[in-house]
């Protein structure tokens, strides 16, 4: 049986001591946020995650979801009750606008809460996660009437939401989309088509499900310029707000898949379902992508969260399992063998997870704070800067955190040796669950292409220059801090490599776009290592300020940071070397040779 | 539905053109080996793999093995018939001594056949694979009476075999082993104890199962010096060779696990089971390790094999799936979109698999050829050199090929996007199956420790110096070959990095053994990259000799080799940099901090 303890000490450290969010009290929603409130929220969220959600993680995987003959879907035992507890705690509306019943807290809190839910039970966390995304889209693009009709129920968690993009022949390339929408003259449309891989498409947790569906209005242009977004509720809603008749949408089947068994991945059939346009005609992709940024950050968060929970269980096993003796002499001579945590290679795996997870948390929360500034700052320049940074960070966080979340879950499984492969120990589930995060919300390859093809060149490279400027400013501000020097040197070196890669890609990608494509994943990882170096420099700075406090927490933070410098940072140079070999050998074979 | 086509062209190329095994006709078993015979064996083996074994791979995973109330175990539908076909083809005895009914072909053929079986159906391949290991141990350590009693039936595939090492509290650290053996005065022993994770421990493929069991004879010393190896047949064997009464060994349960569902992973209970000592009293570990070298190579082979089969299916999908357009303009303008193989990042994943798998195959076969020389050469110096090289290569091949086999299976799954996560497409099974190979036969961390702690320092570093000498000689022999220069330069560079790492480890591991442990996995990967560079230099040399043949095979080989130089070789420098940071940060935290 696995366990999860929310790392609230580390979360508090990042929020209060590293990012010092009290500095942002001028932003709406921040003024009431005291360290005490932060601690209270994290403690309560942590309890729900550890005591209610995590105990259902393995049983939910074993049982999975069940589709019945009438097309209804039942979630695993305990999920309804757990969802009710989640709903009753008001967690769904943490950072949503109070205008629709939310608590109006900063977005960064929503991220912290999501981290705990995803770590405790990733398959569970997807139900409210997708609902938040759908609510965000309605909030951003809906009419007042739509907002009033749907948002209060969604924010209260009474109704859930989904995103319907993929069709059998059309995943990344949404221009191929075929689902049809026929206007009915009364403002409504009849939607028909088949959608696949729809997470949480049908379930028994909420009384209604609000599907957001991409479809093509009859006569619309081909390709991506003829796609619109529709609201298609499972049950139509009467004017008094009560639920009306069943709409023409149903779950045709549940996919059998590698993991996240407790989340229903549905084939959804739309058969003259009644829907209403959300946002402008033929501008559905833009509306969908508004919410996709935050959805992608949420997926990155899943990668980091699985690294955290799998680390916790691997570390507990490594302290408990007796096998062999330390290379430097017995450490537990009174026992038949030492705990395996004495072995340097076991330590290396555990330290890699810590250095990744702790750095990634700081980086993710830092980015979320820019998300708050993007939405809430009164300063136009700040909003633009925040938008640039969010746009740049989104593909990097999504892809790197899920790539590494998976490889660290694999390493955590490795710590348990043979037991790691056995289902009842729970470690292999972390790996299977983590695997999907590299794929959905745009595969990691698509993220890399988004980074080099869109985010990098946009506005003459303004976003990446802004990011490098932040790094330079930090280094400059702290250059007198001798103890921070190893971190500043590491950061400076990584940034220089990233900047060199940017220049190479700009010059050679222009000449042949395949050069950019072939280097895109290495560039994403190089940038990610630079981001982690920046995060670790900030963590180390905050830890150094308290290093004489006598609290081992700060000393451990610095030691883990040193491990980052020793064991993760060096990968950057290999990525740079690979980027600079260009596309020639990658593209050299004829298709027929494969 | 996945497919598998044995890469017989590539296998033939390595055997005939790269290694030129006709040169070894002075060795027993090699004299009859003509290129025609090689081709015939590979073709026949390939047919069995593709047409009989592979079609059962997904169904076997879905059905798994079933344990019945009486302790008997049924393999998935079709396995009995497939095993009968395997047995009828004489595949079990390919490289076994003709004295016991084998065909006496070189070991390298057994490796090539194993590759195909593992790629086609890894879970199936484990049944005969473990039997070969058990037969090897009896051949090496058994009395004439034991050999005559067991080997003919095992070589014919009528009986299978297992290896019983692990106990609940005792995996890597066999010194903790508790199973007991009580001498009965008639040469037999009563064996009692519980063994776990016993692959193929019970099944319905053969009429008898010959268990090799580690146990401690009553009164034997504690630790690893008091462990003996026993032969414990499921059914006792009458003097006329017929099967006698059931022995006191039974399958208590089958483990539920992440993958290889079609192989029964058993808890085996020994309850006064009758067994006979194999080899010397208290020297059971030595006997077990004799066969473990080849077993470990077999596991490495599984990693490479899964990379091959997952590559084939990913490549087929990438040529078929239409999504998006090439960055350099439409390549299939007549279609609604280009096949995704036009995208550089998809190519990068596929080329990485090719460069790994083709290099690994040459490296593995090269090592297997040393295995043949070790057993069969009449020259004492050659036998010792071969033994040194085999010993050095074994942990590197086991760990690197399984680490990369898993990550490449993951990449192949990634090529399919969302479909990769869905069970029916079969890609996620490759990942789940590949995962175990990093764990069993000694976790990869144990391999890394074997490398730096035993294989490297033994005889003053003779093995690694021998290996470097082979590289130097190759470079020197070919230095006039201008077209080979990029490969020789890459090899020379990798070798220099490996040599630097060896020096660092020798100097700093002596001073603090944790320095060697902390760098062990990076060193193993650095050595592996050097081995691949050596393999690619040999592949490129052979391909260059035919480059004017007009056969694209050779040109493609050179291009894939260039990709290796561009995209895999650069990782070596990162490994070296990490090794040289030592153990300080890895070991810096108190245990309590984890």
- Please summarize the sheet with the most strands of chain A: 5 strands, mixed, barrel
Class by helix and strand content of chain A?
alpha+beta
End-to-end C-alpha gap of chain A: 44 Å
| Count of β-strands of chain A | 11
What's the order of the H and E elements of chain A? HHHEEHHHHEEEEEEEEEHHHHHHHHHHH
The oligomeric state is homodimer
Q: What portion of the residues of chain A fall into strands of 2 or more residues?
A: 5-15%
Instruction: Give the spatial strand order of the biggest sheet of chain A.
Output: 4-5-11-7-6
Average pLDDT of chain A: 97
Helical element count of chain A? 18
Alpha carbon gyration radius of chain A: 24 Å
Low-confidence stretches of chain A: none
Outline the structure in words.
2 copies of one chain form a homodimer. With 594 residues, the first copy, chain A, is an alpha+beta fold. Chain A has a domain at 443-588. The first copy, chain A, is 56% helix and 11% strand. Chain A contains 18 helices and 11 strands. In chain A, strands 4-5-11-7-6 form a 5-stranded mixed beta barrel. In chain A, strand 8 and strand 9 (243-246) form a beta hairpin. In chain A, helix 2 packs parallel to helix 5 and helix 6 runs antiparallel to helix 7. Chain A is globular, with a radius of gyration of 24 Å. The model of chain A has no long low-confidence stretch (mean pLDDT 97). The interface between A and B is large, with 97 and 97 residues.
